[in-house]
Design goal:
The structure holds 2 protein chains of 2 kinds.
Chain A: E1 5-7, H1 11-28, H2 34-64, E2 72-83, E3 86-94, H3 96-119, H4 126-145, H5 149-167, H6 174-205, H7 210-220, H8 226-242, H9 251-254, H10 260-269, H11 274-281, H12 283-287, H13 290-311, H14 317-337, H15 341-368, H16 381-384, H17 386-400, H18 406-420, H19 426-451, H20 459-464, H21 470-485, H22 500-505, H23 526-553, H24 555-564, H25 566-573, H26 578-626, H27 633-652
Parallel strand pairs in A: 1-2
Antiparallel strand pairs in A: 2-3
Helix pairs in contact in A: 1-2, 1-4, 2-3, 2-4, 3-4, 3-10, 3-15, 3-21, 4-5, 5-6, 5-10, 6-8, 8-11, 8-13, 10-15, 13-14, 13-19, 14-15, 14-18, 14-19, 15-17, 15-18, 15-21, 17-19, 17-21, 18-19, 18-23, 19-23, 23-24
Chain B: H1 4-24, H2 28-53, H3 57-87
Helix pairs in contact in B: 1-2, 2-3
Classes of the chains: A mainly alpha, B mainly alpha.
Chain lengths: 653, 100
């Protein structure tokens, strides 16, 4: 079946507009007025979004025709690499999957750019910030619209670079610079796996093209073979780095050192979801490796509950949201791990809305608290920050899974698929279900501690508390609307909806395309689905009431509970000591090996030795050769004559 | 009648004497004379060829060589005189400063 491509020249500008914006701001930003810099950055991303919408409309018409569901828009810039049989084009593709991603990325980016104008208004490196931010959007759009895995890797590395630059944006602060470095190094480990997977794919399938891979993989790779599993697991290693899953999640909480809009954009809405997108994009490979899919689902669900449990006791508003992000990403991996690729992308989309909203709300709170992020010092902000409060409330209800907000539909879809899919298991469902309860609890805890009760801040800080300007609150309202309405594109059939989102994506997903008929989901009556829905709403409400009881009705209960379970509390508060364990078992050994073997022995003795040896041997040889130069004219004459004799002899004989 | 071979043998003998003198004698003046001997050995060979093949060009070249030798002597002797003024010697083994 030949995919149906249609050329669409505008596609390149989706990606290139933010690059142009970034370059313009980097070159001239320090001379432009602040207002103009901000407008330039926003309009660059706005152009991407508008072209994305135009492309989406065109694609909808194109792929809406019967039999042309897999049609896509394509735009080739030039041949980027051509070495032997390795051919990589700088080419973009807009199919049903990347269209969703392009719209989510550029749309959310646009809102966050607008918000940043207000949030960063007083920063001295205003133009540097917007240049980086536009560059990030460029790489992210490159990642989601690339038509081959090679170009995707460029975007993949590029977003990592921008993440590093923006986490360490305030690099005068050593701690923040270190956080950026940590993110970069941890990501390198994952990228190493990704790169190995790319090499394996090329050497076995002979192509890096997504459509080529989808075509070749089922022919070349044996389902369940070691090779298919290795490729899938190496790709997943890349995904655990970028998308902050166990065991490589440790960089994300530290990444909160960056400006809050950056946390919203990169470390919640877009970049960290790249791993999910990559797995969905290469779903063909995963369907050939059932073991790897099991690993993905298990790691996902473990991350979901693990990060949620840490989130229960964090006191930094951004740290709570960071662990919440890790946990929600775990849900997405659970979805793709059980083969529910469209459910994963659905949650990716709704998560982008509500998590960006939560982070931006947190940004407003931090802004009004004069930079304090500790929720123990907050409280009672409800009256003072009404717009922030209402939007934050909506986002909290959404992430907790209260119907009919978008988070309810997407999370419930994942829970249902974890239970009912052929690869699912009731245990996966149960862990994810428990994590949903924890999610509701820690989110309402955050909400109550921040916005309810009485303000615990110092007088000086309290006097300063004020609502943010409209340039910051309008994006909040838009995101809140999206968070409320976003779920209606994917109402499950059991609730009388058409599950349009699933039907939109399924033609481009091999696993849901009917090609693997044996994978048909187990059939349950609707009553089971209703029961699970009721249960998950109940657990969300349970989380709400517990949080209310702990932090509003009887605030002393939380403290006494923490006092009664000091070990658990300490364990959670210190994030299971994972950073310390990694430090002892990985960081320190690497440092020791680097210092005492690689540096002191290998570098100083072997490498420096080789360099010195080269120098010394040249000197010795030179001394030997210099002895020929006696200074005696007659010695030269003899040499000369011998030389002539030699030449003559050679000529004559 | 003188054969070409005899002339060439004479030329070779003269040349070898010149080479031997150049590399064995230490006096710069003598070495200089040896060089002249080698040049004239070549001249003998040239004149011999001219005679044998009845061609004028070789004789012309011999004349050139003589003019060149005269010029060379003028320069060379001037150098030797200068060296002697500075070093108070014309022994070539004492003139070995031209090395690393």
């Amino acid at each position: 079946m030949e995919p149906l491509a249609e050329n669409y020249q505008l596609l390149r500008w989706i990606v290139l507009a933010p690059l142009a914006g970034s370059a313009a701001i980097a070159l001239f930003g320090h001379r432009l007025p602040r207002r103009l810099t901000g407008i330039l950055a926003c309009s660059a991303v706005g152009i991407s979004f508008l072209i994305g919408v135009a492309g989406f409309v065109k694609l909808k018409a194109l792929s809406g025709q019967p039999g042309r569901e897999t049609a896509f828009l394509a735009d080739t810039l030039y041949r980027w690499i051509s070495v032997g049989s390795l051919k990589v084009d700088a080419a973009f593709v807009l199919d049903r999957l990347s269209a969703v991603m392009v719209l989510v990325v550029s749309g959310v980016s646009f809102l966050i750019h607008v918000y940043s104008i207000g949030y960063m208004a007083h920063d001295k490196s205003y133009w540097r910030y917007f240049s980086y931010l536009n560059l990030f959007v460029f790489f992210m759009l490159l990642l989601v619209s690339a038509d081959n895995i090679g170009l995707m890797f460029v975007g993949w590395e590029g977003v990592g670079l921008c993440s590093y630059l923006l986490i360490g944006f305030w690099f005068e602060d050593m701690e923040k610079a270190t956080a950026g470095k940590k993110a970069f190094i941890v990501n390198r480990i994952g990228d190493f796996g990704f790169l190995l997977a790319i090499i394996l794919i090329f050497s076995n399938l002979g192509t890096l093209d997504f459509y080529g891979i989808a075509e070749q993989a089922p022919r070349v790779l044996v389902s369940g073979s070691a090779l298919a599993t290795a490729i899938a697991l190496l790709l997943f290693l890349g995904a655990t780095g970028k998308s902050a899953q166990i065991p490589l999640y440790v960089w994300l909480p530290d990444a909160m050192a960056g400006p809050t809009p950056v946390s919203a954009l990169i470390h919640a809405a877009t970049m960290v979801t790249a791993g999910v997108y990559m797995i969905v994009r290469l779903n063909v490979l995963y369907l050939l490796a059932p073991f790897a899919m099991g690993v993905v689902a298990s790691v996902g669900v473990l991350t979901a509950i693990y990060a949620a449990s840490i989130g229960l006791v964090q006191n930094d508003i951004k740290k709570v949201l960071a662990y919440s992000t890790i946990s929600q990403l775990g849900y997405m991996f659970l979805a793709v791990g059980v083969g529910a690729f469209s459910a994963g992308i659905f949650h990716l989309m709704t998560h982008a809305f509500f998590k960006a909203l939560l982070f931006l709300g947190a940004g407003c709170v931090i802004h009004s608290m004069s930079g304090d992020q500790d929720i123990r010092n907050m409280g009672g902000l409800r009256e003072k920050l009404p717009a922030t409060y209402w939007t934050f409330l909506i986002a909290t209800l959404t992430i907790a899974g209260i119907p009919p907000l978008s988070g309810f539909f997407s999370k419930d879809e994942i829970l249902w698929m974890a239970f009912s899919s052929a690869r699912g298991h009731w245990l996966l469902w149960f862990v994810a279900f428990a994590a949903a309860g924890l999610t509701a609890f820690y989110m309402f805890r955050l909400l109550f501690l921040t916005f309810f009760g009485t303000c615990r801040a110092e007088q000086k800080v309290q006097a300063h508390i004020h609502e943010s300007p409209p340039v910051m609150t309008v994006p909040l309202v838009v995101l809140a609307v999206l968070a409320v309405l976003g779920g209606f594109v994917g109402i499950p059939e059991a609730l009388g909806g058409g599950n349009n989102f699933h039907h939109w994506l399924s033609p481009v997903l091999a696993g849901e395309n009917g090609t693997l008929a044996s994978e048909a989901p187990r059939h349950y009556p609707h009553s089971v689905e209703y029961l699970l829905i009721v249960l998950s709403v109940a657990v969300a409400l349970c989380g709400y009431f517990t949080a209310r009881w702990f932090y509003i009705s009887k605030p002393e209960t939380a403290r006494s509970l923490a006092g009664r379970m000091p070990i658990t509390y300490q364990l959670l508060g210190n994030k299971y000591y994972i950073d310390e364990i990694y430090n002892i078992f990985i960081v320190q050994p690497v440092k020791l090996v680097s210092t005492y073997i690689l540096w002191k022995i290998f570098d100083q003795r072997v490498i420096d030795g080789l360099v010195n040896l080269t120098g010394r041997s040249v000197r010795v040889l030179g001394k030997l050769a210099a002895r020929l130069q006696t200074g005696y004219a007659q010695a030269y004459a003899v040499t000369f004559i011998l030389g002539v004799a030699l030449v003559l002899g050679a000529l004559l004989w | 009648m003188i054969e070409l071979e005899q002339l060439l043998i004479l030329s070779a003998i003269l040349f070898i004497i010149g080479v031997a003198g150049f590399i064995t004698r230490r006096n710069v003046i003598i070495m200089f004379m040896s060089v002249e001997l080698m040049l004239n050995a070549a001249n003998v060979a040239l004149v011999g060829f001219a005679y044998h093949f009845a061609r004028m060009e070789a004789q012309l070249i011999a004349l050139f060589v003589m003019a060149l030798a005269a010029a060379e002597v003028a320069v060379g002797l001037a150098i030797i005189v200068t060296v002697f003024r500075n070093k108070k010697t014309v022994n070539v083994d004492d003139l070995n400063i031209l090395k690393w």
